[in-house]
UniProtKB/TrEMBL annotation:
Annotated TM spans: none
Higher taxonomy: Bacteria, Pseudomonadati, Bacteroidota, Cytophagia, Cytophagales
Gene3D superfamilies on file: HesB-like domain
Annotated Core domain residues: 2-104
Descriptive protein name: Iron-sulfur cluster assembly accessory protein
Family matches, as InterPro entries: ATAP, ATAP_core_dom, FeS_cluster_insertion_CS, HesB-like_dom_sf, IscA_plant_cyanobact
Length: 108
């Protein structure tokens, strides 16, 4: 399961509206090779649900994850921060053994 905080939910709704997207545009979360720690998060809107996708819904936000990425993301919480130390989406991933300073990549 992947969940979202209230702040992340608000920001997702705001961005979807700003981009002129409908509620049919879900959040796709995936993991790609790269970054300074070896694996990087990828976050995007997607209205195409693939047969192999795992689908989660939390606080009215539908989240799509491919099977390979799910292995790295189980239990992850998607948050949003707009504080002094940085602005953007953050992944609170219990599976990560280390993360880089920017929070965009991780290792397991």
């Amino acid at each position: 399961m992947i969940s979202v905080t209230d702040k992340a939910k608000e920001k997702i709704i705001e961005l979807r509206s700003k981009d002129g997207l409908t509620d049919n545009h879900n959040i796709r979360v995936s993991v790609q090779g790269g970054g300074c720690s070896g694996l990087m998060y990828d976050l995007d809107f997607d209205s195409n649900v693939k047969p192999s996708d795992q689908t989660f819904e939390d606080k009215g936000i539908r989240i799509l994850v491919d099977k390979k990425s799910l292995l790295y993301l189980i239990g992850t919480v998607l948050d949003f921060s707009d504080g002094l130390n940085g602005k953007g989406f953050q992944f609170i991933n219990p599976n990560a053994s280390r993360t880089c300073g920017c929070g965009e990549s991780f290792a397991v």
